[in-house]
Amino acid sequence: MDAFYASVEQRDNPEIRGKPVVVGGTSTRGVVAAASYEARTFGIHSAMPMAEALRRCPDLVRVRSRMPHYQSVSSQIFAVFRDFTPMVEGLSLDEAFLDVTASVTLFGSAVDIAHAIKRRIHDETGLTASVGVAENKLVAKIASDLDKPDGLTIVLPEHYATRLDPLPVSVIPGIGGETGKRLTAAGIMTVRELRTAGDRALEPIFGRFTKKTRDRASGIDARPVVPLRAEKSISAEETFDKDLDSREQMERQLLRLTERTAGRLRKAGLSAGTVQLKIRQSDFKTCSRQRKVNPPADGTDQIYAVARDLLKVWLARNPDAKIRLLGVGGSNLAPAGQADLFSGVPDEPATPVDRTVDEIRDRFGSAALSRARALDGSDRSSDRVESASKQTR
User: Fold this and answer.
1) Catalytic residue among 9, 38, 95, 203
2) Taking the model in full, what pTM does it have?
3) Is residue 251 annotated as part of the catalytic site, yes or no?
4) Domain at 4-65, CATH from 3.40.50.450, 3.30.930.10, 1.20.1260.10, 3.40.1170.60
5) Tens digit of pLDDT for each residue in 284-304?
6) Are the beta carbons of 233 and 290 closer than 8 angstroms?
């Protein structure tokens, strides 16, 4: 992501857009956690003492960090990643490696996927991302930094020397300030000079990591993308501009959320052994309900039937409640098609309708198709239906 924390603050507060902004508190004794691109023109960067940042730019706008908010936005972004591939290795709230090798048959080339991810992130969060596309993690990481903000850089193996050689050695992960000084003293300042340097020059600096360092300067990296943790749950939730006060509204929104959750499960190749319902009332009181399902489910109708029944039971005890937020999730995840060996009941695959809906949405976007009972009166307008029909022909 581009200047993530600062960009979130500028998005949320139009008054500071286009101004030099830093995140990190209002005390001059602190340090800069993030700097907007406008602030970076003054040489301000993360980890810089706030007093030094103010010296460089007296008109600097300082914003106190809102980490829970950034984590929430990050979750939105990572949900986009996982709509394209389950192979997501998060490095931080605002950076990740994605292995899309198995996704190209569904979504097109790696470049097509990169464009689609950038569009989705911008459409759903209003933020920009810079993407590097390459055949390994090292070069993809370097490429992602070559054209910021809002960049997309492709570096193919046959272009490694052309693209990487002129760059400073600092682009190689693991080469920090002190190592950089030692390389400069040895007359090694570019990736090409590092790549072609002999052992005599490099071994005093890198020791047993000399070959590994030279390999990296050559664009060689065999590390796989490794998701840091297995998915524990997949869900979708929404806070509504206007509280839901009728059962019809609640069930309609519940179906929409179920469609999103079930689609994400199928895309990840997973089924849910437990269906979860999350409800936040107008007074912010929040509760959750869940029910095990056997066999595990990834079908929209299967999950909706359980979620709807959970909502029905809850409404019987809270008949006059108004709902501010609804969420539908699946947990106790297992690979789709993996039945409980002791249940004697085969796992149910996704229905042909689900598979068709997934294919259309993959091709035309998540808004291209929806079940009729998930639409309200405004959604059923002739303009909306006409637009959807054109997309799905």
Assistant:
1) 95
2) 0.58
3) no
4) 3.40.1170.60
5) 788 999 999 988 999 999 999
6) no
